Amino acid sequence: MTEESSVKLHGSWASPFAMRALLALKVKGIDFEYIEEDLSNKSESLLKYNPVYKKVPVLVHNGKPISESLVVLEYIDEVWTDPPHLLPKDPYLRAKHRFWAAFFEPLLETIFKTLMTEGEAQKTTLDELLEKMDVAEQGLKEIFPNGVPSFQEQKPGYLDIVFYSLYGIHEAADEMIGTKFLTVERFPLLLSWVTALKQVPEVNQVTPSIPKLVGFLHFLRQRSAPTKA
Fold first, then answer.
1. Burial class of 22 by CB neighbour count within 10 A (0 to 12, 13 to 18, 19+)
2. What pLDDT digit, counting tens, does each position of 80-126 carry?
3. Going by C-beta distance under 8 Å and a sequence separation of 6 or more, which residues neighbour residue 64?
4. Residue 28: CA atoms inside 13 Å, Cβ hemisphere, count?
5. In degrees rounded to 5, what are phi and psi of residue 45?
6. DSSP 8-class letter at 86
7. 103, burial (CB in 10 Å: exposed 0-12, middle 13-18, buried 19+)
8. Where are the alpha helices (DSSP H) in 117-209?
9. For strand 7-11 and strand 58-61, is the pairing parallel, antiparallel, or unpaired?
């Protein structure tokens, strides 16, 4: 693959942000080279291509880097214009999908705080997360008035990808907090959405194994725990 026509993605297997770019490339059927980054020992290429944030993902197209996962998703959809499209063509629907993606974006920090804490601190952040999810459960009915699609006749799009990057590994979160937080009783739409996405081959290809992810999260929790005097 020549540099003039090359597509490379710098990512990390445990990064939900990198998962977004990886899934978008696979859904669009784009040939690319994947470069796994060790975020504890970042490569010179990553630091060169993303000097501002020094994070993954970084998409390098024809030698030109694009950073930040939501920006990468839109870039992919604008450059590779053949279907499937990540964003709807209708401007109003496109705006709605961007709105809900923006709503989900800060929840990742809340999810991470929940997974990294225990006891009362965990309960506080979990309650905050569940309240936000209640809002999404009701509000997303305007996006899915007839229920969540099966994805048998369509590929995941921009909003699907952003949502899945947060909740696709909910089983790992369940194990970390000791209870199921994405229940059918409270979140029938959200649970049916993530369940439908799990049936998509490209989604399964980018989803890390739950045991591996749980082990990684336990490692991060231990590392972030305050040191006892």
1. buried
2. 999 999 999 999 999 999 999 999 999 999 999 999 999 999 999 99
3. none
4. 27
5. -65, -45
6. S
7. middle
8. 119-139, 158-167, 170-177, 188-197, 201-206
9. antiparallel
